Amino acid sequence: MADRYPGYDVQSKRWSQSWNEPTRQVIDRRLAIPREPRFFSPDEWRTLQAVCDRIMPQPTDRPPVPLPAFVDQKMADGLLDGYRYAALPPQGDAWRRGLAALDVAARQAHCDPFHDLTPDRQDDLLRQMQTGELAGPEWGGMPCKLFFEHRVIPDITHAYYAHPVAWNEIGFGGPASPRGYVRMGLDRRDPWEAVEANHAG
Amino acid sequence: MPADPFAAPRATGGRAPDVFRRGGWVPMRQYRDDDTVDFAVVGTGAGGGPLIAGLAEAGFSVIGFDAGPYFRPLEDFASDEREQEKLYWNDERVVDGANPLTMGGKNSGKAVGGSTVHFAMVSLRFRPEWFRSRTILGYGADWPLDWREMWHYYGRAEKALSIAGPVTYPWGPKRPRYPYRAHELNGAAQLLARGAEAMGMKWTATPLATVSAPHGQSPPCVYRGFCRFGCSTNAKQSQLVTFIPRALRAGAEIRDLAMVGRIEVGPTGLATGVHFHREGRWRFQRARHVVVAGYAVETPRLLLASANGQFPDGLANSSGLVGKNLMTQSNQAVFGTMEQEVRWYKGPPSLSITEHWNYEDRKDFAGGYCWMAQGPLPVEWATIQTTSRGLRGQALRDEMEKYNHQVGLKMVGEMLPDERNRVTLADDKDQYGLRVARVTYSWGDNDKALINHALDQMQTSLEAVGAKEIFRQENDTNHLAGTARMGDDPRTSVVNADCRSWDIPNLWVCDGSIFPTTGGVNPSLTITSIAMRTADRIRMLAKRGEL
Question: How many CB pairs under 8 A join A and B?
């Protein structure tokens, strides 16, 4: 896939007026996230890795954003959302139960653990989760559709789009303090913003 | 770097953080737990902040309690969506009903300054008729307040918050020009204006609580665009940098990281003080008056949790209405893709507005709405793509790459009060050992009709500016109101026009909970104006010996 913002690296602004010290520390911590799980068991971890690869597939020409590690961090540190659907258990329990149940569904349908299935088969099971078609005692009454909408999707996609690599892909200006922006209108761009290839504006 | 603001309280030892100077402090008066202060105010946001300052300036002894930390914006705030979730009330709450509410960033703050630390700064007046919507417009409930008096307090609040806005406002009765000039429009705001003009509607620069020129120690806004994640330059006129410093100068004490869990009521039927959790233990602060200013979830939660033998259904609840008539505001949106680069991440997210449908009554549903320009940052934009379009995988990645060409319009719509929408206590307990709130919400038929009307109108506007690939975000809500409504009749309201509870004369509620209806604009300016009025009323009642 062609690069939409060739050469743009939001981290090149690290020592510019666009990044203050708290921002540098936050991004440093994010980039240095431990890759080994603290919360999930080895089985859960393998399933989670496979789920992340399908929810947020990543290019192979760069190191992947370690999405499972960010999900693990949220659970291990107990970073809450501020609300919980009454039909869902607390977030860590929901993830453990959901991953185990997905693996059961994979073994029942294909006699293999989820992480060993082909991407097509993984996608199909995730689609069944999204549409509420997976059920069984291993779900413990947790609606798979709610688990998909309120745990799987936000916990994985938020982690991705909070990462500088994603900001480069979409041309987001990134951190902007204390220097903000000057050129505000349509088709206006400050020199410290990403240049889009093939845009005449 | 300063110490962790969550690890230990900062407002101690006779001083509080100076939010304008790195490492600086300002002197703070402190009270002992067995001092009986005049007022214990629970919450320091849009309602608590002005009241604490107003009471202290009137000479009362006041303590403002906040469960959240005392941030130093210059040192604690990163330019980052995820990190700044630390500003939100992210403790567990259980949500249910047919349309469960998303709690957190859009409606709940946990910090000195409350949600105003992360609000979008939109500072609008109610339409005058909304204060008598039952009598004049035929829906909801009347307020016990007169709009002309509110017009006076709106003016004072706009001055206190240095609101930047237009010279003339296109709707409603005459109002003075805004204290600070309007902000420049960004691309997204320009497109709202073009769309409104194409539809024959008026539009204007949104009145915003971020300064367009220096004010005191606040520098002008630099348009960094992270307004909803805390302002790291202090341009934003949050309570943290406006009324709270005023309160400290006037002799108030602020207690950060102080969670109030129970209001004590004595055998005489009067409140005697508050039980609060700070530095790992429960303490009791004596007070002659208690004001609850925790917003529409925490306020009823505290009143209900303070039930005792004399008030088994919770405090101030003889009407049975504490926790009921919870209202949110519809916050649906329409988005599209432009040929031009919009780069909506620059500047405050809602720089232009049309209130056309708040002031136009030719429609077949009750209530009104406005819409504003939008500028979601990447994580929020991904949320919109996944929840509204069900995208994931490569399709999500492809759509996200159009980020700099997106444009959107987002409504703030009036939802009607309904007793079935309510806050109760769940069985689950939080980290303080307190029962968490259960928030139950379902949209009514009128709410749905209003939303559908708005979605059609916003879509027409986007089509008029040439947006392509238009899609709708059909499920989103934001601000809260209700749950302790004000009124003229103790049988049908919780507090009177002075925010004083009918049942316990030294117990008050001063936040968005007291709204009988929620209107079609962001509520913070109305909350602040009422808080300033309440401070005046208390001063007057004290003079008359009626306190």
Answer: 201
Distance from the A193 Cα atom to the nearest Cα atom in chain B, whole angstroms: 10
Are the Cβ atoms of A83 and B382 closer than 8 angstroms? Answer: no
Domain-embedded: residue B413: yes
CA nearest to B42, candidates B304, B270, B322, B254: B254
- The ipTM, to two decimals, is 0.97
Residues 423-442 of B with CB under 8 A from A: 438-439
Q: Give how far B65 is from chain A: nearest CA, Å.
A: 20
Nearest to B369 by CA among B99, B120, B124: B124
- Tell whether B3 is covered by a domain: no
Closest CA to A84 of B349, B178, B507, B103: B103
Residue B275 placed within a domain:
yes
Give the domain ranges of chain A. Answer: 10-170
Domain that holds residue B157: 34-543
Q: What's the pLDDT at B3?
A: 83
Tell me the percentage of chain B whose pLDDT exceeds 90: 99
Q: How many structural domains is chain B composed of?
A: 1
Given this model, what pLDDT does residue B147 score?
98
Query: Three-state DSSP class for A67?
Result: helix
- The residue type found at B490 is P
A61 by Cβ neighbours in 10 Å (0-12 / 13-18 / 19+) ranks as exposed
The model's pLDDT over B373-431, given as tens digits with 9 standing for 90+, comes to: 999 999 999 999 999 999 999 999 999 999 999 999 999 999 999 999 999 999 999 99
Q: What is the CATH number of the domain that holds B187?
A: 3.50.50.60
| Rounded Cα gap, residues B458 and B452, in angstroms | 10
Q: Do B222 and A175 touch (CB under 8 A)?
A: no
